[in-house]
Amino acid sequence: MYTIHSQKVENNEHLILENASKTSKVIISLQEGARIASLIFEGKTIIKEVHDFSYADSYAASILFPFVSRIENGKYQFDGKNYQLDCNQAGINALHGLVYNKTFSIVNQEITDENAAVTMSYKENNPPKGFPFTYELQLTYTLSEKGLSIHIKATNLDEVSFPFTVGWHPYFYTNHLQDAVVKFNSHQQVAFDEKLITKELIPFKNEGDFTIKNKQLDDCFVMNDDTIEFITPEYQLKITSDVAQNYLQMYTPPHKTLIAIEPMTGISNSFNNQIGLQVLAPSETYEITWNLSII
Question: Which residue segments constitute the domains of the chain, with CATH numbers given?
């Protein structure tokens, strides 16, 4: 039987999903946008907190909503109106959405012999001027013997439509990053300017192994399908999406045995370049599931 229990860590509440043998465990930080602070699967460390790499700097495993990556200078136009987001990236750009530091509430828990699942919710009832729309974001994490699934459900609570993209920002840990490979299928790469704002899409071909060795990554790719694989000497994992159009952002922080492998539905500056941008009408919902299978 799986278990779910909570634990206070300083001023934060952690929710812990664990299997009966205690070899698989996920820790969720409710006050930090319901992000995954730790993931151990069958004794292997997949996601962990790293010294000298705080969440304020890393946004590690945060859910990105209502926009992924960056919005140039925090400015965009929608439905004929101009908006200004707070530029939380050193006053340069708006970065990684608006829910990464919000407190989520538990709305449902389910425990069986096969899995443990928890659903958490954040309702934006006091929106900022830069995104003056009300919405509810529900996250459901399910831990099972297959791995972890993340289901996101966004509901427009407002009387008008709003633009959005959504993503997930996990850093995967391995002691052998230089020997690891990422497998994905892509035909286009995003060309960035010096502020990591999208300039254009350029030709790129990858149909198999993408080696990490000797690469310093901060790159984004247009996916041809819904599958990303990460293969290390310690474990192998596969991320799949249930939506048609997918993008992949990868980032290797300097001097860390970590790699961010981020599935997304849009790219940098989507609110302005429209790439991957979607619009959610009043009372409508959008749902996406990422399945993380681990071997």
Answer: 3-294 (2.70.98.10)
